[in-house]
Structures are given as C-alpha cells and as structure tokens.
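In the current project phase, the collection of sequences with tokenised folds has grown. A sample record is quoted in full directly below:
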Amino acid sequence: MNRFHKKHILDMASLSVDEIELILNTATALKEISERPIKKVPTLRGKSIVHFFHEPSTRTRTSFEIAAKRMSADTFSISASTSSMTKGETLLDTVTNLQAMNPDIIVMRHSVSGAPHFVAKHLNASVINAGDGMHAHPTQCLLDLMTAKEAVGKIKGLKLSIIGDIFHSRVARSNIVGFVKMGATVTVAGPCTMIPPGIDSLGAQVTHSLEEAISGADIIMTLRIQKERQNNFFFPSEREYASLFGLSYDRLKAMNKNAFIMHPGPINRGVELSSDVADCPESLILKQVANGVAIRMALIYLLMGGTRDAHSN
C-alpha cells in the first residue's frame, strides 16, 4: 500500500492493517527529521492545522504542535476556556465557524465520546481524534505500536498487558483494538470495579491477578487512576490500590525479568508505578513521547496526500 486514502483519523477500528503499517513505516522514516540539527522540512508549507482541545493536555497537544511545525504547517490553537463555547455556542457552530476559515486539518480532543465523529460529518477539513471521552485515542495507540515494535522487534505474537483503570481509559480501548488487529495478545488487569463489562468483546483477555497479567508479558502498560472521570471512587484508597496493583521494580523483576514498561502519561508516581520502575532501563515511557511526534508528523503528512518528499529540505 503506497497511498493513504482515509480523510479522518477517528479510531483504531476504522483503520486497516495495511493502513496502520503505512502509518508506522512513514513515522519511522520521518523520525529522522527530529534528530537533525535543524528540525524542519518544508513539506506542508501553506497547510493550516487547528488544534482544538476541549480538555487539558500536555504531551498530546505539544507533540501535535511540534509535529506540524516540523513539517512547516501553520498552526492555530484553541482551548475550550478561550472559545465561544464559554458563551453558550454549540460545538457544531464552533467547528463550522472554524471550517469557514478553511483549515486543512482540525486536531480535536473532547470530553464527550463520539464528538470528533460528529464533527467529521459536518466538515470539509480532515479531523484527527486526539482523545474523546472514554472512547478512543488512536494516535496514542499508534505511537504505542511503534514503540513496542522498536523494543521487541515485532507486533504479531507480542504479549501486551494493560494494568489499572481500564474502565475510564480510552487508551486501553484503542490499544486493545489496535494491538489485537496487528496480531498481538492483550491482557487487561485491575480491580473488579475498574474492568468494564464486555471489554473481552474487543479481544482482550481479562484477569484480576497482577502476577498472571505480568508473568508472560513482553510489554506491561500501567494506567493512571482517572479521578476526574469518576463520580465515586472505584477503590478504597490510593495506598491500597498501590499495594495490590502498583508496580515496583522488585515486584516487576520477581514476576517478569524481561518485560518492557510503558505508560501513556501523566504518571502518578507511587500509585500505578514507583519511580524506580518509571526510570528503569526497561522503561519506554520517554520513547513513547518521542515517537508521538513522529506518528503525528506521519498522520498530517499522509492526510495531506503525502505526494511530496517528506525529507526534502
């Protein structure tokens, strides 16, 4: 497959295996740009990208902005607190007004599941879902696939275990769909209250045993407890959660001596994992961040046609 035909990037379910492989291969090629003394190419000069974030974000928003600038696109940022939505404007009116300014891509994060899909139906611009509610985070899954492949050398046959707040996690849902689609085995683990009913229908194996989840894994991904999405606590205390499902380096090595560690961020040190795990040699967390820029460069490049040499300078 040489040409990308999707107009939007909304979720992992709508991407084929060939499309995912094309994105990963393109990101691998573009990663070199970020390692140059002058980290910029003129590939998307004249293209305009709006970053519309209805929820707070550090890594995702910054990496999208850096990715666009490294491809020489013009970028504009809007947050919910500075948009007319604070004055009662509807989401549809906000995005159709943005469309009237004729951007090429709108990168969108929203607290409501399905919001980017709704917006995509009403816009001529391409829409990239940067996270919607508890539904999907496709660019996080893509960067996780890239990072896992670099570390292990393959995706097919890889064993991924995701530990923690599966119930509230759009990352977990996207990663289950994406990794299973690419031939990996995915196990999820956490307290009973944090494992949503039906998650196995996405292809994940479910366990409530931390040791069972960790012992055979190639990649262990821990997730943050998302208090901002919980009306009531789903566990007695952070201390109890850490004692049962938190990952320390000693516990990791006792259960699995060879696994790599991933985390989508932000990290709550001492809760889902300890500092000695976050900073250990097996940690891929900062590599995930670096690969996030490459994946987002690849996506905006492919959505804009990918007809020019991305490496030209």
Residues 64 and 95 are 19 Å apart (CA to CA). The chain has two domains: 17-137+292-303, 138-288. The two ends are 25 Å apart (CA to CA).
